[in-house]
Amino acid sequence: MLKATGLTKTYDNVKALDDVSFEIKQGDITGFLGPNGAGKTTTLRILTGYMIPDSGEITYNDKSLEPNSKEILGSIGYLPEENPLYGNLRVDEFLTYTAKIKNAYDLKELKEIADKCGLESVMTKTIDTLSKGFKQRVGFAKTLIGNPKFLIMDEPTEGLDPNQKEEILKLIKEIAKDKTIIFSSHVLSEVRQIANNVIIINRGKIVAQGNSDKLILKHFKNSLVTLRTDAPITKLNQELKKVKTVFAVDRKSKDRAKFSEYAITCSNPEETSLEIFKAISKNRWHLIELHSQSQGLEELFKELTK
Q: Distance between CA atoms of 95 and 138, rounded to whole angstroms?
């Protein structure tokens, strides 16, 4: 388990982190979200021991990072946003060099990592000649050397094309079975795709943490149903007042064909949609559109980081 307790960090009288606390259980993939300047990179650097907090504590499996840094850092794989590589080295030379620095040189293991990261075809190529996607794979392979139990990654898919992103995300998910992973990202769909938990930070404070689906349900107790019909507004309101799950009706627009669009706030979108359909059919009004709008991680993020 990775646990942060009461982390604070100040730069030039500006609090980058303000009493940040969270925990990540073994085997979890946690997406770390926040606007630019919210404190994501600072937090990740503190987790790796690269930066020292003004106050607070980091523990890995109940061992504090500060007095046990040499022992603990060997169990951490860190992929910073900049992904520093030695461009003049070949891929195999760089991975061998990294393994020897980590005292983890094992030719068989290096080959397995290279194969896992899809580097077989570029092992003898100079890193500077590689595409952005392959450079990211090399950085990822470097992170896996020594079989670290904790992986900390800062924007691991930044700058990659959609296919490359998909490959990196698939790789993260594959290796997550016996590791604890935290990664930052601006792409919420990526987080939703592979993370089973999220932490949202805003202005140096944690504003939400936990399972994304549970957070969404907890935060958004009401849903929206979109309706487009030619029903007279007065009669439509009379019908909707009979529906117990409807809380509010907001007329959004009306076109030249006399069809109006409504946003209906309700507690149960499926039941509400069924009752609306019954009312439309009973009164023989025309129905152009009827669908529910579920709130998602993007809406939650926007709401909490205003």
A: 8
Torsion of CA 50, 109, 32, 192, to 10 degrees: 170
CATH (residue range 219-304):
3.30.70.260
Q: What is the pTM of this model?
A: 0.80
C-beta atoms surrounding 174 within 10 Å? 9
Q: Are 3 and 20 in contact (CB under 8 A)?
A: no
The region, left, alpha or beta by phi > 0 then psi within -120 to 50, assigned to residue 37 is left
How far is it, in rounded angstroms, from Cα 176 to Cα 180? 7
Question: 133 and 167 in contact (C-beta within 8 Å)?
Answer: yes
**In which residue are the tokens 């992904």 written?**
83
Question: At CA 100, angle to CA 45 and CA 98, rounded to 5?
Answer: 45
* pLDDT tens figures, 268-280: 888 999 999 999 9
Q: What are phi and psi of 98, to 5 degrees?
A: -60, -45
Domain range summary for the chain, segments of one domain joined by +: 2-218, 219-304
Domain 2-218 belongs in CATH node 3.40.50.300: yes
Sequence-distant (≥ 6) Cβ neighbours of residue 175 within 8 angstroms: 116, 144, 151
Closest CA to 223 of 184, 263, 261, 267: 267
The pLDDT of residue 47 is above 80: yes
